[in-house]
Amino acid sequence: MDKVLTRRILLGVTGGIAAYKVAELARLLIRNNVEVQVAMTEAATRFVSPMTFQALTGKPVITDLWDASFANHMAHIELSRGADAILIAPASANFLAKLAHGLADDLLSTACLARSCPLLVAPAMNREMWDNAATQRNIATLRGDGVAILGPDSGDQACGEVGMGRLLEPGELAQALDMFFSPKRLAGRKVVVTAGPTFEAIDTVRGITNLSSGKMGYAIADAVTAMGADVTLISGPTSLAPPAQAHFVYVTSAAEMFSAVKAHVAGADFFFSVAAVADYTPLAPSGRKLKKTVEPMEIRLKPTEDILAYVAGLAVGPFCVGFAAESEDLSQYAQAKRVRKKIPMIVANLVQQAVGKDDNEVTIYDDAGAHALARAPKSKIAYAIVEHAMRLRDGRPQAATVTPIKQIS
Question: What are 162-178's pLDDT values in tens digits?
């Protein structure tokens, strides 16, 4: 009996040592009844032979922009026609730069520019290339253009170093692709997320802030956006690009964040209070720059409004998820905060293990106890947190441990 194809994928392979993993990805997709057409850059053929992919997929691999087997010699046009998506794996730093800037100097980059279907990319590169400001700008541009970013992961790299930039494993990529096409389980749901630090003015140029990068909150916003939610992301000052489909509200101070939450939380189904909101703010900030003197300076502070407690106390409010960053006694302080705020779930971590980093190690606390998540990229942790919140809200039992899954944004 012939297999019933679930979808058609154009699998683009670019030059990188991780290309060998994509052969296994192709095999998994074929096994899941996905029709796979592989296209490779010239550099990719230096790492894996096109014959390998042809043997796995049963289709000739396309490498030449001028391939005469396509009608009118327009391989770059025909490749994406009829495809449900294009997946680039591995996506090298060079290829990401091409996509971000609309360059089309070979078959695969031209096919991506001429596509009429969704584009997903799975970055893979040395950790320093991934951390480079140019690469991060390109990723932000692609995300803003609606391109789905899968990973990368953190771990051992071929160069002998350890860090972010490792290609997701074939099974994770196959799962990410399946999730991309799966029903949007948060479709029709409204989600409000706060992220980043706040900045409390002392005078016109100075202020009190903290080291929050906003990465965890933005990862949560990415996850719920990918699940089809109507997302409002309220963010303090960060250098991150918000999800293209989220409603983005920029704020500076705790008071501004409180006002924005009150303005947008009505009718929300979930509220993820991820932002590191200042606990105190100057009582009387100066309207001019204060001059330095040799005398000590005293700044009187007043408590800021408790945003999470306000939302949790609404008569008809959303399912609230709190976050706690502690330097010690994690379980004791996190559980006490959850009880004090009267929320069903809190996510806690040690600040020294997470602030400013791309990965995290957290524990979720709820009425059933503690659920530890192993260290993983924040993009993966975000999905596990959202899944846990959805199960709690729906009254479903929690697993003893929660396995984080990959980023789709």
Answer: 778 889 889 888 878 87
